[in-house]
Design goal:
Strand order of the largest sheet: 1-9-8-5
Largest sheet: 4 strands, mixed
Strand content: 5-15%
CATH architecture of the largest domain: 3-Layer(aba) Sandwich
Helix content: 25-40%
CATH topology of the largest domain: Aspartate Aminotransferase, domain 2
CATH class of the largest domain: Alpha Beta
Distance between the termini: 18 Å
Number of helices: 12
Number of strands: 13
Structural class: alpha/beta
Radius of gyration: 21 Å
CATH superfamily of the largest domain: Type I PLP-dependent aspartate aminotransferase-like (Major domain)
Length: 369
């Protein structure tokens, strides 16, 4: 069998950065700033600039950032927050942590993102906010969702956990909503050496409250203004992210190169390939194709040493954890069909053309059988 192609190769990313990462971590160890500290503060400044935002605050995970975003909007028991059933479950966790109810709206078949055409129907007197996701690195329809939210005087939060560096109509993702939240899980486009996240905003009052909430609801040590959390970003992760951020734009170009090559090589297969809405730039966190024969194709790729993954095999409205919401199969048919058909191919900026061609050859061989 030919050389396997991994789904993700973090070693390829880490190897050329190792000396710089070692030096950055050593500096953190030397000045013993393990919770927040100067490395986190510098990264926050740099990431805010990257997002063209006024404020970025480091968190211990993207999930924590989303939770605090809901707190900033005073989401609580009895409230509803409209979101997508087709994403990682952390998006809905943030709503549930506040005692509120996730209300799902089906996705657009072309983008996998929340369908704005269905959004207004889901708004009720209990709706407190909207929480759409830039899934797979593809920006959601910001203009359409913004217009509906303005009409109904509702804030929205961007879940940008997979969209570092993505652009909507020329603007970097992160400042369209009241708040945006990013994840730095190691497999993300910008990944820590462990867990991490960020909350980004242009609102000075929201930034100040978020800063307090992530540190036990405190602005003065041992004085606590409201119930808060231990959601601080570790100093070592701030140092790591500071090194990696310098390379993010180049990595995004690498991902765009890989996506363009896949599109060229797989154009004449029966696969439904991902597309980018005109005027937007995807961060290509994932390259997710669709096929009614997904499970067979997955077995074929596995047998031939081609890494792959399913994002996501079950939409959130059918998860056991959310059975109490009362949704049933058939309620969100586009999401349900996507969950049966999606398959993510290897996607990382260091993929060589030979590896991309190998993936394409194995896929084409499957459809020739």
């Amino acid at each position: 069998m030919s050389e396997p192609v991994p789904y993700l190769d973090l070693r390829a990313q880490m190897k050329p950065l190792r000396a710089e990462l070692d030096a950055a971590i050593a500096r953190t160890l030397d000045h013993c700033s393990f919770c927040l500290g100067p490395d986190v503060a510098q990264f926050e400044k740099d990431f805010a600039q990257f997002c063209d935002a006024k404020f970025a605050l480091g968190f211990n995970s993207g999930t924590s950032a989303l939770h605090v975003a809901m707190r900033l909007l005073n989401v609580g028991p009895g409230d509803e927050v409209i979101t997508t059933p087709y994403t990682f479950i952390a998006t809905s966790w943030a709503i549930s942590y506040c005692g509120a109810t996730p209300v799902y709206v089906d996705i657009d078949d072309a983008t996998f993102n929340l369908d704005p055409k269905l959004l207004e129907k889901a708004i009720t007197p209990r709706t407190k906010a909207v929480l759409p996701v830039h899934l797979y690195g593809q920006p959601f329809d910001v203009d359409a969702i913004s217009a509906i939210c303005r009409k109904h005087k509702l804030p929205f939060v961007e879940d940008a956990a997979q969209a570092h560096g993505a652009k909507y109509q020329g603007r970097t993702i992160g400042t369209f909503g009241a708040v945006s939240c990013f994840s730095f899980y190691p497999a993300k486009n910008l990944g820590a050496c462990g867990e991490g996240g960020a909350l980004v905003t242009n609102d000075v009052s929201l930034a100040a409250r978020a800063k307090s909430l992530r540190e036990h609801g405190s602005t003065v040590r041992y004085h606590h203004d409201e119930v808060g959390y231990n959601y601080r970003l570790e100093g070592i992760q701030g140092a790591v992210l500071g090194v990696k951020l310098k390379h993010l734009e180049a990595w995004t170009r690498g991902r765009q190169r890989v996506a363009a090559r896949y599109a060229e090589l797989l154009a004449h297969t029966p696969l439904k390939l991902p597309t980018v809405t005109a005027g937007n730039e995807s961060a290509w966190h994932l390259y997710t194709v669709r096929s009614p024969r997904r499970d067979e194709l997955k077995k074929h790729l596995d047998a031939n040493g081609i890494g792959n993954a399913v994002h996501y095999p079950m939409p959130l409205h059918l998860q056991k954890a959310y059975a109490h919401l009362g949704y049933k199969a058939g309620d969100f048919p586009v999401s349900e069909q996507a969950s049966r058909e999606v398959l993510s191919l290897p996607m990382f900026p260091e993929l060589t053309d030979a590896q991309i061609q190998r993936v394409a050859t194995v896929v084409k061989d499957f459809f020739r059988v």
